[in-house]
Amino acid sequence: MAPPSYARPTLSFLLKFNSPKAPLAAQSLATGSRQESTAFKASLGIESEWAPAVLLTVCSRTAVTIIASAARRLLTKKQNCTTCDLNLPLTEFPRRPEGSTCKHLSETCQDCWREWLAEQVESKHFDQISCAQCSNVLGQNEIRTLATPAVYERYLDASFKATMSAMPDFRWCMAAECKSGQVHSEGDIFCCVQCSHKACVNCNTAWHADETCKVYQGRLIKQPEEEEASARKLGRMSKLCPGCSRRVSKR
User: Which of 81, 91, 188, 201 could cross-link with 109 by S-S, CB 3.0 to 4.6 Å?
Assistant: First the structure.
């Protein structure tokens, strides 16, 4: 007769702790064959038909007790966050993500990590975002694990834009409301395929339809001088009204 079904889940306990009985237990509990069950009992030196299941059940209960005890310790033990200086449970401190090059202990709480990464994503280049506790640069997996979903999305967007911008012939649309971009390798006029906004490639500005690039650039050079001359002339010919602070003619 095969061991009862309630004994089967305890196989994971044997496998987890690398029990030498695990391979035989796997055969016995998975197949339920009398011959394999008998071999399993013999390997344990037990004669009772149900002894293996009873033993496995005890082992399972012991494992649950150990895990529950460890969980209680994690919930009650506390440490100070080096950033906010709050005394918090260990569960508030994220574990080092897989692939991390940091070797120090986790001494920054989850909330501080999220604030740190939000600021870093806004102010740093996507490949220069550093650890909150050391100067190591963080990788994508670490940022995905430690940041909020919204901040991680902004990080991915910055990474994508930087990668595309590094392409020699790639240009972003200059329209304020458009976020599209495309490869443009020929001609002086860039026309966005998304919104049809036109831009001058040579001047890197909105398309100046009525001016050549030379005339447009010359006007930009002269414009500050003309504005300054106009301001001086206005100062000579007018004054501020003491009542309404508007400029009025000196005549």
Answer: 81
d(CA 232, CA 251): 17
pTM of the model: 0.52
**176-222 residue pLDDT tens:** 889 888 888 788 899 999 899 999 988 888 898 888 888 888 888 87
Q: Could you count the other beta carbons within 10 Å of the beta carbon of residue 228?
A: 10
Q: Give the residue from 75, 107, 83, 82 showing the smallest Cα distance to 93.
A: 107
d(CA 107, CA 93): 7
Can you tell me whether residue 28 is helix, strand or coil? helix
Per residue in 157-175, pLDDT (tens digit) is 999 989 888 888 898 898 8
Q: What is the CA radius of gyration of the chain?
A: 36
DSSP conformation class of 96: P
What is the spatial distance between Cα 163 and Cα 216, in angstroms, rounded to a whole number? 31
With tokens 């102010």, the residue in question is 123
